[in-house]
Amino acid sequence: MAKDTTGRLHVTVKSGGKRKLSSKLWLERQLNDPYVAQAKRDGFRSRAAYKLQEMDDKHRFLKRGQVVVDLGAAPGGWSQIAAKRVGSLDGKDKAKGKVIAIDLLEMPELPGVTFTQMDFLDDRAPDKLRAMIGGGADVVMSDMAANTTGHRKTDQLRIIGLVESAAAFACEILNPGGTFLAKVFQ
Questions:
Q1: Region of residue 175 (left: phi > 0; alpha: psi -120 to 50; beta: else)
Q2: pTM
Q3: CA nearest 148: which of 23, 31, 27?
Q4: From CA 109, how far away is CA 115, in angstroms rounded?
Q5: 183 is catalytic
Q6: Fewest beta carbons within 10 Å, which of 17, 37, 111, 148?
């Protein structure tokens, strides 16, 4: 370990011959990212929680009592923020919200969130989500990302394809005046 220009410790990951260069670089970025460390200290599952907080503080689309669908939820940072803001954590609150989450990856249980491990692109996924919701949704948010290939144009097309699928689902399930939010890589 060495110190970077700000005086913080900088972790360098050895490749050991088993890790691809892209994996090594990603791991180094994660280990040295101050937001990752802050998220861990604040009890968030990912640094993405801060981005959702920032967007909601500005646009106020998460409200008590709402039904939220989180597509591509793992590891659960966005679901954590949504559960807190819509009140799905509150036991006896009349304005109790609901957070429904789906991801291809496993996600450990999260208070106030109903999770299903399933590929959103599976033909059965939209119907399963509709059944879990039990009606319409007020917010559909997508943090889905395809595994990257390293080829920028291909990766961009795959991400846009996921966003288009999420938007089509949102158009079907959102209540009037509902919100669709999607994150894409630039």
A1: beta
A2: 0.80
A3: 23
A4: 8
A5: yes
A6: 17
